[in-house]
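Worked example 3 (structure in, sequence out).
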């Protein structure tokens, strides 16, 4: 099977999978308790049942948003619009959903790209060194430290950082609100850039340390599995230098677990972090999705869920293609 045939087959499989995901997501959101119209009008179930005027207003609002139609009809209408990347207007402020996403997406991408870059830059060397020096004092200390980091909840670490480094009870070293200081509009580009990056230090750290700990363990496990293979022993028996054995013969094949995780990076970059963005008041995608869920803003929730599902499927396809590059023993026939 050629690369072209494999891509066509996978893309054809993505279509029904994507439709199934969108259908389940649409049903779960539409059938969830609570009425978007009632929440927008600020009335509850008691008001709907006890006040005839309120009930009539809610019904009119449902008709305005198309919520009075059968759920299958609503799904068909919504799916036709999604094909053209039209996610409709927000129930909350009547703005186009795609505009709201484009406003929040840059800061979320910036946070996640920086975090992912740091995670891979630090975690892969740590994992390789721990595997090569298995059982040494450095390996044991690194293992303990990484397991401690992995066990710390990021919201707890964020609160501690605010208390100790953000002007809470001790030092006031880092800003803890937003992505820019007030009064920076007239400053130079270098000053605004430095201020912006300084605002990102604590959020990026909270997004990085847990993934770094987990990824380094994956890299260590993958490297340990590879260096025990027969071809690695053969390379050493030929008298090749240890650096050549590790970095030319073992390292590339040990990346398979890391490549697998790449499939989940694309949706993670879009979804953002609800907790971290809320704690540091960062106007990103995580905060947008959280606010949309609370206000029953169905178009925004469905847009984020749909785009995340598509990026997940795309990421899995990219991972499968990278498998062949990382390990030549894997072929498209084997994938089939």
């Amino acid at each position: 099977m050629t690369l072209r045939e494999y891509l066509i087959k996978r893309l054809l499989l993505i279509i029904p999978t994507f439709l199934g995901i969108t259908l389940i997501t649409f049903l779960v959101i539409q059938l969830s308790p609570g009425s978007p119209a009632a929440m927008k009008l600020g009335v509850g179930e008691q008001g709907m049942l006890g006040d005839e005027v309120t009930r009539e207003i809610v019904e009119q609002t449902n008709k305005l948003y198309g919520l009075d139609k059968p759920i299958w009809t609503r799904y068909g209408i919504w799916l036709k619009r999604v094909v053209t990347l039209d996610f409709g207007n927000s129930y909350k402020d009547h703005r186009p959903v795609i505009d709201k996403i484009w406003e929040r997406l840059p800061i979320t991408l910036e946070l996640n790209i920086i975090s992912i870059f740091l995670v891979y830059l630090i975690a892969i060397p740590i994992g390789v060194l721990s595997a090569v020096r298995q059982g040494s004092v450095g390996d044991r200390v690194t293992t303990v430290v990484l397991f401690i980091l992995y066990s710390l909840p990021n919201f707890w670490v964020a609160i501690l950082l605010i208390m100790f480094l953000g002007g809470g009870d001790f030092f006031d070293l880092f800003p803890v609100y937003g992505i820019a200081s007030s009064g920076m509009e007239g400053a130079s580009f270098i000053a605004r850039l430095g201020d912006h990056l300084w605002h990102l230090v604590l959020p990026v750290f909270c997004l990085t340390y847990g993934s770094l700990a987990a990824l380094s363990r994956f890299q260590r496990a993958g490297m340990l599995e590879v260096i025990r293979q027969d071809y690695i022993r053969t390379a050493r028996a030929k008298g090749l230098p240890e650096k050549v054995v590790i970095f030319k013969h073992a390292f590339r094949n040990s990346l398979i677990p890391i490549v697998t995780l790449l499939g989940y990076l694309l949706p993670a970059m879009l979804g953002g972090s609800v907790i971290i963005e809320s704690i540091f008041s960062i106007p990103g995608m995580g905060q947008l999705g959280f606010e949309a869920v609370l206000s029953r803003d169905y178009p925004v929730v469905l847009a984020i869920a749909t785009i995340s599902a598509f990026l997940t499927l795309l990421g899995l396809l990219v991972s499968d293609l990278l498998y062949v590059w990382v390990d030549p023993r894997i072929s498209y026939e084997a994938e089939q």
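Notes: The chain has two domains: 3-83, 97-335. The two ends are 8 Å apart (CA to CA).
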